[in-house]
Amino acid sequence: MELSLSNSSSLRFPQNDFLSLHNCSRPGSFHTFSNKKLASKSISLWRPLIWRQHRLLRLKTQTATESNASGDKHGDDDFIVEDVPHLTDFLPDLPSYTNPLKKSQAYAIVKKTFVSPEDMVAKEIIVQKDSPRGIHFRRAGPREKVFFTPEEVRACIVTCGGLCPGINTVIREIVCGLKNMYGVDDVLGIQGGYSGFYSKNTLNLTTKVVNDIHKRGGTFLQTSRGGHDTKKIVDNIQDRGINQVYIIGGDGTQKGAAAIYKEVEKRGIKVAVAGIPKTIDNDIAVIDKSFGFDTAVEEAQRAINAAHVEAESVQNGVGIVKLMGRYSGFIAMLATLGNRDVDCCLIPESPFYLEGPGGLYEYVEQQLKENRHVLIVLAEGAGQEYVAQSMQAFQEKDASGNRLLLDVGLWLTQHIKDHFTNVRKMTTNMKYIGTSCFFGSCLGHMISSNIPNLSPLFELDGFQNRLKLCSTYSKESKVKTRTEGTLDDLEKLKNRSQ
């Protein structure tokens, strides 16, 4: 298993180990424990949060022929492009126009940095000398030619699903980008998620309206789960004359965006649909970091510090902090690395076990004997298999179709207490802090909110050439990629990853 911490570094751990991050200030304290009780299975750090479609184009060009003639054993079949649907795929006679940025004095620098439609980004950054040319992706960014004029654009923005720090910043960037960069006057805000399309909850968004919304938490447009009726939504899009749809949300939201795209394509109407990935867990690809993630990691420090103070202030203190992370442990891991007081970090990607040599109970006892306290951080998705075994099957789902997770923090707190009381005959002082519902409503930290983030702007630029630009990742490559897909592929990828 590979845990990528950034674009330039990664930590590698054996599969089926549980990751124990000891206090990093102590020499030799960072290691893993072999999992002896769990059956071997493949574990991937990435989960398919958004739909994916392989539209592989093998570029047969003279360059490939020339490379073969020069002795290069990798021909044109080795150069593969995972492309995205284009407006002209079903509207072949669509006229193109000069990009408005070319006439703007404020963005004169852009004239020198337009992205060529032929620019590609390689999936693999590090390759061997004899490696195939491999899979490539279209580079995002502004093109010289676009397929909308500012006068014809009527855009709308909608936020769906759970809260995440920075949503208002994204809304503001889209509105300001459309109006100031592309000269678009008509931008609507759909209130209350997908259901807002057909309940007529709409705001007219101007730069004045959104001027200060990035200073607030939550979402200025309000949100909801579920409420997706594809035909009603597309009917409303047509009735209102909307031709650009920006959808901010997670995996369930993007699945809905895929359905909207399919209906748009079926009707043959000139409507661009873009999904802007929203996940506080940072488990979505293409982008270096999902908005709200830095805030979550920073806010987690408060909970970790509080639990540490509580644990070290008593005899045999055990502090447990549960952080967000349904399928990935990025928040827990990065918060642990940044804190340095955490003794053990449990994440969904790396299964753990409780009893026996090398188990969590043994490690906690060792730390209590050495330091008189122990601090554990765990992601909410870690150890769910144990909770399910000890409790009645829990299949309840939220309105988005996500299975509601059991509180592994409370479960672990009780089991550690029972083990040391009944088995080891030791008294422990437990302190549990659960923070899963707190981070989403936080105001995004200013360092994160004010550093320019090109993701919303790339979505704007992408509208000029593409029907949709939605982000996902490839389980096979375990690296972030820009791909597109269909609803049918989503379930296949989920089953394959599990």
UniProtKB/TrEMBL annotation:
For this UniProt entry, the molecular function terms from Gene Ontology, in alphabetical order, are: 6-phosphofructokinase activity; ATP binding; metal ion binding
**What keywords sit in the KW lines?**
Allosteric enzyme, ATP-binding, Glycolysis, Kinase, Magnesium, Metal-binding, Nucleotide-binding, Transferase
**Gene Ontology CC: one annotated term:** cytoplasm
Phosphofructokinase domain: residues covered: 155-393
Q: Which InterPro entries match?
A: ATP_PFK, PFKA, Phosphofructokinase_dom, PKF_sf
Q: Which reaction does it catalyse?
A: beta-D-fructose 6-phosphate + ATP = beta-D-fructose 1,6-bisphosphate + ADP + H(+)
Q: Which cofactor does it need?
A: Mg(2+)
GO BP term (any one): fructose 6-phosphate metabolic process
Cite the SUPFAM superfamilies for this sequence: Phosphofructokinase (SSF53784)
Describe the task this protein carries out. Answer: Catalyzes the phosphorylation of D-fructose 6-phosphate to fructose 1,6-bisphosphate by ATP, the first committing step of glycolysis.
Q: What is this protein called?
A: Phosphofructokinase domain-containing protein
**Species of the source:** Solanum commersonii (Commerson's wild potato)
